[in-house]
Design a protein that fits this description.
It is a single chain. This protein is of the alpha/beta class. The protein has 2 domains: 10-25 and 282-417, Lyase, Ornithine Decarboxylase, Chain A, domain 1 (Beta Barrel), CATH 2.40.37.10; 29-279, TIM Barrel. The protein contains 13 helices and 17 strands. The strands form 2 sheets. Strands 1, 10, 11, 12, 13, 14, 15, 16 and 17 form a 9-stranded mixed β-sheet that branches. It has an 8-stranded parallel beta barrel with strand order 2-3-4-5-6-7-8-9, surrounded by 5 helices. Strand 2, helix 3 (61-69) and strand 3 form a beta-alpha-beta unit. Helix 2 (29-42) runs parallel beside helix 9 (246-261) and helix 8 runs parallel beside helix 9 (246-261). It is globular. The model has no long low-confidence stretch (mean pLDDT 95).
Length: 427
Protein backbone atom coordinates (compact mmCIF):
# COMPACT_ATOMS: atom_id res chain seq x y z
CA UNK A 1 0.00 0.00 0.00
CA UNK A 2 1.54 3.34 -1.00
CA UNK A 3 2.36 5.99 1.58
CA UNK A 4 0.73 9.35 0.92
CA UNK A 5 2.55 12.51 1.99
CA UNK A 6 1.41 14.49 5.02
CA UNK A 7 2.30 18.07 6.04
CA UNK A 8 2.85 16.92 9.62
CA UNK A 9 4.18 13.92 11.54
CA UNK A 10 3.14 11.94 14.60
CA UNK A 11 5.08 14.11 17.03
CA UNK A 12 3.37 17.28 15.78
CA UNK A 13 -0.08 15.73 16.07
CA UNK A 14 0.66 14.33 19.53
CA UNK A 15 1.63 17.83 20.59
CA UNK A 16 -1.61 19.23 19.20
CA UNK A 17 -3.73 16.64 21.00
CA UNK A 18 -2.60 18.08 24.31
CA UNK A 19 -4.71 21.15 23.53
CA UNK A 20 -7.17 19.78 20.99
CA UNK A 21 -8.45 16.29 21.75
CA UNK A 22 -9.25 14.09 18.78
CA UNK A 23 -11.16 13.94 16.56
CA UNK A 24 -10.29 17.14 14.72
CA UNK A 25 -9.80 18.41 11.21
CA UNK A 26 -6.60 20.12 10.14
CA UNK A 27 -6.11 22.05 6.88
CA UNK A 28 -2.89 22.98 5.11
CA UNK A 29 -2.97 26.67 4.15
CA UNK A 30 0.23 26.62 2.08
CA UNK A 31 -1.03 23.76 -0.10
CA UNK A 32 -4.50 25.32 -0.49
CA UNK A 33 -3.00 28.61 -1.69
CA UNK A 34 -0.68 26.86 -4.14
CA UNK A 35 -3.56 24.84 -5.53
CA UNK A 36 -5.80 27.90 -5.88
CA UNK A 37 -3.08 29.62 -7.90
CA UNK A 38 -2.65 26.51 -10.05
CA UNK A 39 -6.34 26.57 -10.97
CA UNK A 40 -6.30 30.26 -11.85
CA UNK A 41 -3.11 29.83 -13.88
CA UNK A 42 -4.73 27.06 -15.95
CA UNK A 43 -7.21 29.66 -17.23
CA UNK A 44 -4.74 32.49 -17.65
CA UNK A 45 -5.75 32.73 -21.31
CA UNK A 46 -9.20 34.02 -20.29
CA UNK A 47 -9.26 37.67 -19.24
CA UNK A 48 -12.54 37.17 -17.36
CA UNK A 49 -12.04 33.88 -15.54
CA UNK A 50 -13.04 33.43 -11.92
CA UNK A 51 -13.63 30.41 -9.71
CA UNK A 52 -16.50 30.83 -7.30
CA UNK A 53 -15.55 28.52 -4.46
CA UNK A 54 -18.39 26.18 -3.52
CA UNK A 55 -18.96 27.33 0.06
CA UNK A 56 -20.86 24.14 0.86
CA UNK A 57 -17.60 22.20 0.48
CA UNK A 58 -15.84 23.83 3.43
CA UNK A 59 -17.95 26.58 5.02
CA UNK A 60 -15.36 28.10 7.33
CA UNK A 61 -14.71 31.85 7.04
CA UNK A 62 -11.01 31.44 7.82
CA UNK A 63 -10.59 29.23 4.74
CA UNK A 64 -12.86 31.46 2.65
CA UNK A 65 -10.67 34.40 3.65
CA UNK A 66 -7.63 32.61 2.20
CA UNK A 67 -9.45 31.97 -1.07
CA UNK A 68 -10.79 35.52 -1.24
CA UNK A 69 -7.21 36.69 -0.91
CA UNK A 70 -6.36 34.51 -3.93
CA UNK A 71 -9.08 36.20 -6.02
CA UNK A 72 -11.89 33.64 -5.67
CA UNK A 73 -15.57 34.41 -5.62
CA UNK A 74 -18.17 32.30 -3.81
CA UNK A 75 -20.82 29.84 -4.96
CA UNK A 76 -23.62 29.99 -2.41
CA UNK A 77 -26.88 28.09 -2.07
CA UNK A 78 -28.36 29.49 1.15
CA UNK A 79 -28.54 32.69 3.18
CA UNK A 80 -25.92 31.59 5.75
CA UNK A 81 -23.50 30.78 2.91
CA UNK A 82 -24.00 34.29 1.51
CA UNK A 83 -23.30 35.70 4.95
CA UNK A 84 -20.09 33.66 5.17
CA UNK A 85 -18.94 35.07 1.82
CA UNK A 86 -19.78 38.62 2.78
CA UNK A 87 -17.95 38.27 6.09
CA UNK A 88 -14.63 37.83 4.25
CA UNK A 89 -15.19 40.59 1.69
CA UNK A 90 -16.67 38.52 -1.14
CA UNK A 91 -19.68 40.52 -2.24
CA UNK A 92 -21.78 41.70 -5.17
CA UNK A 93 -21.39 39.71 -8.37
CA UNK A 94 -18.51 37.76 -6.87
CA UNK A 95 -21.32 35.81 -5.17
CA UNK A 96 -23.16 33.32 -7.36
CA UNK A 97 -26.45 32.34 -5.72
CA UNK A 98 -27.52 28.99 -7.13
CA UNK A 99 -30.33 27.35 -5.23
CA UNK A 100 -33.23 25.04 -5.91
CA UNK A 101 -36.56 24.99 -4.06
CA UNK A 102 -35.50 28.39 -2.76
CA UNK A 103 -37.28 30.38 -0.03
CA UNK A 104 -38.42 33.76 -1.32
CA UNK A 105 -36.70 35.53 1.57
CA UNK A 106 -33.33 34.23 0.38
CA UNK A 107 -33.93 35.54 -3.14
CA UNK A 108 -34.72 38.94 -1.62
CA UNK A 109 -31.52 39.01 0.43
CA UNK A 110 -29.36 37.78 -2.45
CA UNK A 111 -30.80 40.37 -4.82
CA UNK A 112 -30.34 43.21 -2.31
CA UNK A 113 -26.75 42.03 -1.77
CA UNK A 114 -26.05 42.36 -5.50
CA UNK A 115 -25.36 38.65 -5.87
CA UNK A 116 -25.90 36.93 -9.20
CA UNK A 117 -29.27 35.17 -9.16
CA UNK A 118 -28.81 31.88 -10.98
CA UNK A 119 -32.37 30.63 -11.35
CA UNK A 120 -33.08 26.92 -11.20
CA UNK A 121 -36.62 26.97 -12.56
CA UNK A 122 -38.53 29.09 -15.06
CA UNK A 123 -41.23 29.84 -12.46
CA UNK A 124 -38.62 31.68 -10.41
CA UNK A 125 -38.82 34.58 -12.87
CA UNK A 126 -42.25 35.57 -11.61
CA UNK A 127 -41.40 34.75 -8.01
CA UNK A 128 -38.31 36.96 -7.99
CA UNK A 129 -40.07 39.79 -9.82
CA UNK A 130 -42.98 39.71 -7.38
CA UNK A 131 -41.03 39.54 -4.16
CA UNK A 132 -37.63 41.08 -4.87
CA UNK A 133 -37.77 42.75 -8.27
CA UNK A 134 -35.74 41.44 -11.17
CA UNK A 135 -32.10 42.58 -11.11
CA UNK A 136 -30.29 43.80 -14.21
CA UNK A 137 -28.27 40.53 -14.38
CA UNK A 138 -29.92 37.11 -14.29
CA UNK A 139 -28.59 33.64 -15.09
CA UNK A 140 -30.28 30.28 -15.62
CA UNK A 141 -29.09 26.82 -14.69
CA UNK A 142 -29.35 24.54 -17.71
CA UNK A 143 -30.16 20.83 -17.44
CA UNK A 144 -29.35 19.16 -20.78
CA UNK A 145 -31.17 15.97 -19.86
CA UNK A 146 -30.81 13.29 -22.53
CA UNK A 147 -29.20 15.84 -24.87
CA UNK A 148 -25.91 15.44 -23.00
CA UNK A 149 -23.86 12.71 -24.60
CA UNK A 150 -22.20 11.69 -21.33
CA UNK A 151 -24.13 10.63 -18.25
CA UNK A 152 -23.68 12.18 -14.83
CA UNK A 153 -22.51 10.22 -11.81
CA UNK A 154 -23.73 8.82 -8.52
CA UNK A 155 -23.38 12.08 -6.61
CA UNK A 156 -25.29 14.42 -8.91
CA UNK A 157 -27.28 11.86 -10.92
CA UNK A 158 -27.93 11.56 -14.63
CA UNK A 159 -29.12 14.91 -15.99
CA UNK A 160 -32.58 13.62 -16.95
CA UNK A 161 -33.07 12.22 -13.43
CA UNK A 162 -31.67 15.23 -11.57
CA UNK A 163 -33.94 17.84 -10.01
CA UNK A 164 -31.81 20.76 -11.16
CA UNK A 165 -32.15 23.32 -13.91
CA UNK A 166 -34.21 24.22 -16.97
CA UNK A 167 -34.76 22.18 -20.11
CA UNK A 168 -33.49 23.50 -23.43
CA UNK A 169 -36.94 24.74 -24.48
CA UNK A 170 -37.50 26.39 -21.09
CA UNK A 171 -34.11 28.06 -21.38
CA UNK A 172 -35.01 29.81 -24.62
CA UNK A 173 -38.43 30.76 -23.26
CA UNK A 174 -36.84 32.03 -20.06
CA UNK A 175 -34.34 34.36 -21.70
CA UNK A 176 -37.07 35.65 -24.01
CA UNK A 177 -39.28 36.36 -20.99
CA UNK A 178 -36.47 38.05 -19.06
CA UNK A 179 -35.71 40.26 -22.01
CA UNK A 180 -39.37 41.25 -22.33
CA UNK A 181 -39.41 42.13 -18.62
CA UNK A 182 -36.48 44.51 -18.91
CA UNK A 183 -33.49 42.38 -17.89
CA UNK A 184 -30.45 43.54 -19.86
CA UNK A 185 -27.58 41.36 -18.64
CA UNK A 186 -27.41 37.59 -18.86
CA UNK A 187 -25.35 34.61 -17.75
CA UNK A 188 -25.63 30.85 -18.37
CA UNK A 189 -24.79 28.02 -15.97
CA UNK A 190 -24.75 24.25 -15.80
CA UNK A 191 -23.53 21.59 -13.40
CA UNK A 192 -23.71 18.03 -14.66
CA UNK A 193 -20.99 16.08 -12.81
CA UNK A 194 -19.43 15.93 -9.37
CA UNK A 195 -16.07 14.51 -8.31
CA UNK A 196 -15.23 13.76 -11.93
CA UNK A 197 -11.70 12.64 -12.88
CA UNK A 198 -12.21 12.54 -16.66
CA UNK A 199 -10.68 15.77 -17.98
CA UNK A 200 -12.60 15.51 -21.24
CA UNK A 201 -15.90 15.79 -19.36
CA UNK A 202 -15.19 19.44 -18.51
CA UNK A 203 -14.12 20.26 -22.06
CA UNK A 204 -17.33 18.72 -23.41
CA UNK A 205 -19.36 20.74 -20.91
CA UNK A 206 -17.64 23.89 -22.13
CA UNK A 207 -18.33 22.96 -25.77
CA UNK A 208 -22.00 22.42 -24.91
CA UNK A 209 -22.37 25.79 -23.19
CA UNK A 210 -20.34 27.71 -25.77
CA UNK A 211 -22.52 26.29 -28.57
CA UNK A 212 -25.66 27.09 -26.62
CA UNK A 213 -24.48 30.65 -25.97
CA UNK A 214 -24.00 31.23 -29.70
CA UNK A 215 -27.46 29.76 -30.44
CA UNK A 216 -29.09 31.99 -27.82
CA UNK A 217 -27.37 35.03 -29.28
CA UNK A 218 -28.38 34.20 -32.84
CA UNK A 219 -31.98 33.27 -31.98
CA UNK A 220 -32.92 35.80 -29.30
CA UNK A 221 -30.31 38.53 -29.72
CA UNK A 222 -29.26 37.79 -26.14
CA UNK A 223 -25.64 38.58 -25.38
CA UNK A 224 -24.28 36.48 -22.56
CA UNK A 225 -21.58 38.08 -20.42
CA UNK A 226 -20.27 34.75 -19.20
CA UNK A 227 -20.91 31.05 -18.97
CA UNK A 228 -20.46 29.17 -15.71
CA UNK A 229 -19.22 25.62 -16.33
CA UNK A 230 -20.04 24.57 -12.78
CA UNK A 231 -17.62 22.62 -10.66
CA UNK A 232 -17.18 18.94 -10.31
CA UNK A 233 -13.44 18.54 -10.80
CA UNK A 234 -12.67 15.50 -8.68
CA UNK A 235 -9.70 14.46 -6.60
CA UNK A 236 -7.85 11.13 -6.51
CA UNK A 237 -9.24 9.63 -3.31
CA UNK A 238 -7.71 6.25 -4.10
CA UNK A 239 -3.92 6.03 -4.32
CA UNK A 240 -4.16 4.49 -7.77
CA UNK A 241 -6.31 7.35 -9.11
CA UNK A 242 -4.73 10.13 -11.14
CA UNK A 243 -5.43 13.77 -10.38
CA UNK A 244 -7.12 15.87 -13.03
CA UNK A 245 -4.55 17.76 -15.09
CA UNK A 246 -5.82 21.31 -14.58
CA UNK A 247 -3.54 22.68 -17.27
CA UNK A 248 -4.92 20.18 -19.78
CA UNK A 249 -8.49 21.12 -18.85
CA UNK A 250 -7.68 24.80 -19.31
CA UNK A 251 -6.06 24.17 -22.69
CA UNK A 252 -8.96 22.03 -23.88
CA UNK A 253 -11.51 24.68 -22.92
CA UNK A 254 -9.38 27.37 -24.59
CA UNK A 255 -9.39 25.35 -27.82
CA UNK A 256 -13.18 24.98 -27.63
CA UNK A 257 -13.49 28.72 -26.97
CA UNK A 258 -11.44 29.58 -30.06
CA UNK A 259 -13.40 27.08 -32.13
CA UNK A 260 -16.91 28.12 -31.07
CA UNK A 261 -17.03 31.43 -29.21
CA UNK A 262 -14.68 33.51 -31.34
CA UNK A 263 -16.25 32.75 -34.75
CA UNK A 264 -19.68 32.98 -33.11
CA UNK A 265 -19.03 36.65 -32.37
CA UNK A 266 -19.21 36.34 -28.56
CA UNK A 267 -15.57 37.09 -27.76
CA UNK A 268 -14.83 38.23 -25.07
CA UNK A 269 -16.99 35.81 -23.09
CA UNK A 270 -16.27 35.29 -19.42
CA UNK A 271 -15.64 31.78 -18.17
CA UNK A 272 -16.64 31.05 -14.59
CA UNK A 273 -16.42 27.87 -12.54
CA UNK A 274 -17.48 26.88 -9.05
CA UNK A 275 -15.03 24.23 -7.92
CA UNK A 276 -14.80 23.41 -4.23
CA UNK A 277 -13.61 19.84 -3.74
CA UNK A 278 -10.49 20.13 -5.89
CA UNK A 279 -9.44 23.36 -4.15
CA UNK A 280 -9.44 22.26 -0.51
CA UNK A 281 -10.26 18.54 -0.54
CA UNK A 282 -6.74 17.06 -0.76
CA UNK A 283 -5.44 19.45 1.89
CA UNK A 284 -7.74 18.67 4.79
CA UNK A 285 -7.31 15.71 7.14
CA UNK A 286 -9.49 14.12 9.83
CA UNK A 287 -7.35 13.00 12.75
CA UNK A 288 -8.80 10.38 15.07
CA UNK A 289 -7.62 8.02 17.81
CA UNK A 290 -8.06 4.23 17.96
CA UNK A 291 -9.99 3.53 21.17
CA UNK A 292 -11.32 0.00 20.77
CA UNK A 293 -10.61 -3.32 19.09
CA UNK A 294 -13.17 -6.02 18.51
CA UNK A 295 -12.90 -9.52 17.06
CA UNK A 296 -16.09 -11.36 16.12
CA UNK A 297 -16.91 -12.50 12.61
CA UNK A 298 -14.64 -9.72 11.42
CA UNK A 299 -11.91 -7.64 13.01
CA UNK A 300 -12.84 -4.06 13.91
CA UNK A 301 -10.87 -1.00 14.95
CA UNK A 302 -13.06 1.55 16.71
CA UNK A 303 -12.02 5.21 16.58
CA UNK A 304 -13.25 8.30 18.39
CA UNK A 305 -14.53 9.84 15.15
CA UNK A 306 -17.71 8.59 13.52
CA UNK A 307 -19.95 9.13 10.53
CA UNK A 308 -21.14 12.36 12.15
CA UNK A 309 -17.62 13.72 11.54
CA UNK A 310 -17.24 12.34 8.00
CA UNK A 311 -20.27 10.83 6.33
CA UNK A 312 -18.97 10.22 2.78
CA UNK A 313 -17.84 6.60 3.36
CA UNK A 314 -21.14 5.68 4.98
CA UNK A 315 -23.31 7.69 2.57
CA UNK A 316 -21.61 6.91 -0.75
CA UNK A 317 -19.33 4.00 0.08
CA UNK A 318 -16.58 6.51 -0.69
CA UNK A 319 -12.92 5.56 -0.27
CA UNK A 320 -10.65 7.67 1.94
CA UNK A 321 -7.03 6.65 2.41
CA UNK A 322 -5.94 6.07 6.02
CA UNK A 323 -2.48 6.55 7.48
CA UNK A 324 -1.54 5.24 10.92
CA UNK A 325 0.90 7.83 12.24
CA UNK A 326 4.26 6.39 13.21
CA UNK A 327 3.55 3.22 11.25
CA UNK A 328 3.81 4.64 7.74
CA UNK A 329 6.40 2.06 6.70
CA UNK A 330 5.11 -0.84 8.79
CA UNK A 331 3.73 -3.85 6.91
CA UNK A 332 0.01 -3.73 6.16
CA UNK A 333 -0.56 -7.18 7.62
CA UNK A 334 -4.04 -6.86 9.12
CA UNK A 335 -7.46 -6.61 7.48
CA UNK A 336 -9.98 -4.60 9.47
CA UNK A 337 -13.06 -2.44 9.32
CA UNK A 338 -12.40 1.02 10.77
CA UNK A 339 -15.62 2.07 12.49
CA UNK A 340 -17.22 4.75 14.60
CA UNK A 341 -19.70 4.50 17.46
CA UNK A 342 -23.01 5.43 15.84
CA UNK A 343 -25.95 3.04 16.16
CA UNK A 344 -25.85 2.50 12.40
CA UNK A 345 -23.95 -0.31 10.70
CA UNK A 346 -22.82 1.94 7.84
CA UNK A 347 -20.76 3.98 10.32
CA UNK A 348 -17.52 2.78 8.77
CA UNK A 349 -14.52 4.67 7.43
CA UNK A 350 -13.02 1.58 5.80
CA UNK A 351 -14.16 -1.96 5.09
CA UNK A 352 -11.76 -4.87 4.77
CA UNK A 353 -8.88 -2.41 4.66
CA UNK A 354 -5.27 -3.66 4.82
CA UNK A 355 -3.54 -1.63 7.52
CA UNK A 356 -0.64 -1.99 9.93
CA UNK A 357 -1.46 -3.61 13.23
CA UNK A 358 -3.31 -0.95 15.22
CA UNK A 359 -3.16 -0.56 18.99
CA UNK A 360 -5.34 1.51 21.28
CA UNK A 361 -4.03 5.06 21.33
CA UNK A 362 -2.72 5.00 17.76
CA UNK A 363 -3.45 8.12 15.74
CA UNK A 364 -5.14 7.63 12.37
CA UNK A 365 -5.28 10.26 9.63
CA UNK A 366 -8.15 10.08 7.15
CA UNK A 367 -6.95 11.76 3.97
CA UNK A 368 -8.71 14.01 1.44
CA UNK A 369 -11.25 15.30 3.95
CA UNK A 370 -10.85 18.99 3.21
CA UNK A 371 -14.14 19.27 1.32
CA UNK A 372 -17.54 17.78 2.08
CA UNK A 373 -16.11 16.51 5.34
CA UNK A 374 -16.80 18.64 8.40
CA UNK A 375 -19.42 20.47 6.33
CA UNK A 376 -21.62 17.39 6.05
CA UNK A 377 -21.50 16.64 9.76
CA UNK A 378 -24.63 15.97 11.76
CA UNK A 379 -25.68 15.26 15.33
CA UNK A 380 -27.40 11.89 15.24
CA UNK A 381 -26.88 9.95 18.48
CA UNK A 382 -26.16 13.38 20.01
CA UNK A 383 -22.66 13.31 18.60
CA UNK A 384 -20.83 16.63 18.73
CA UNK A 385 -19.02 18.15 15.77
CA UNK A 386 -15.26 18.32 15.95
CA UNK A 387 -12.80 21.20 15.96
CA UNK A 388 -11.12 22.55 12.83
CA UNK A 389 -7.46 23.59 12.89
CA UNK A 390 -5.40 25.47 10.33
CA UNK A 391 -1.75 24.72 9.68
CA UNK A 392 -0.66 28.18 8.58
CA UNK A 393 1.77 28.96 5.81
CA UNK A 394 4.21 29.95 8.57
CA UNK A 395 3.96 26.51 10.19
CA UNK A 396 1.93 27.67 13.18
CA UNK A 397 -1.35 25.93 14.00
CA UNK A 398 -4.45 27.74 15.20
CA UNK A 399 -8.00 26.71 15.95
CA UNK A 400 -10.49 28.06 13.38
CA UNK A 401 -13.53 26.32 14.81
CA UNK A 402 -13.74 24.95 18.35
CA UNK A 403 -15.24 21.59 19.08
CA UNK A 404 -18.90 21.57 20.03
CA UNK A 405 -19.90 20.98 23.64
CA UNK A 406 -22.97 19.49 25.23
CA UNK A 407 -24.09 23.06 25.96
CA UNK A 408 -23.99 23.80 22.22
CA UNK A 409 -26.09 20.75 21.46
CA UNK A 410 -28.78 21.77 23.95
CA UNK A 411 -28.58 25.52 23.28
CA UNK A 412 -31.87 25.68 21.38
CA UNK A 413 -33.78 23.89 24.13
CA UNK A 414 -35.39 25.47 27.19
CA UNK A 415 -35.49 22.83 29.92
CA UNK A 416 -34.43 23.66 33.46
CA UNK A 417 -33.39 20.20 34.70
CA UNK A 418 -31.39 19.59 31.52
CA UNK A 419 -29.71 22.99 31.80
CA UNK A 420 -28.61 22.09 35.33
CA UNK A 421 -27.19 18.75 34.22
CA UNK A 422 -25.27 20.37 31.35
CA UNK A 423 -23.87 22.97 33.72
CA UNK A 424 -22.70 20.23 36.08
CA UNK A 425 -20.77 18.43 33.31
CA UNK A 426 -18.81 21.54 32.45
CA UNK A 427 -17.45 22.03 35.97
Amino acid sequence: MPTLPLPFDRDRILELTQEFPTPFYIYDEKAIRANARRLISAFGWCSNYRNHFAVKATPNPHLLEILADEGFGADCSSLPEILLAQSVGIDGEKIMFTSNDTPVSEFVYAKDAGAVLNLDDITHIQSVETHAGLPALVSFRYNPGPLRQESGNAIIGNPEDAKYGLTRDQLFDGYRELKNRGVTRFGLHTMVVSNELNSNSFVETARMLFTLAVELSDTLDVRLEWVNLGGGIGIPYRPEDKAVDLESVGQGIEAAYNEIVVPGGLDPLGVLMENGRVVTGPYGYLVTTAIHQKKIYKDYVGVDACMANLMRPGMYGAYHHITVLGKETAPHNTVVDVVGSLCENNDKFAIDRELPEIEQGDLLVIHDSGAHGHAMGFQYNAKLRSAELLLGADGAVRCIRRAETAADYFATLDHGPLDALVASTSN
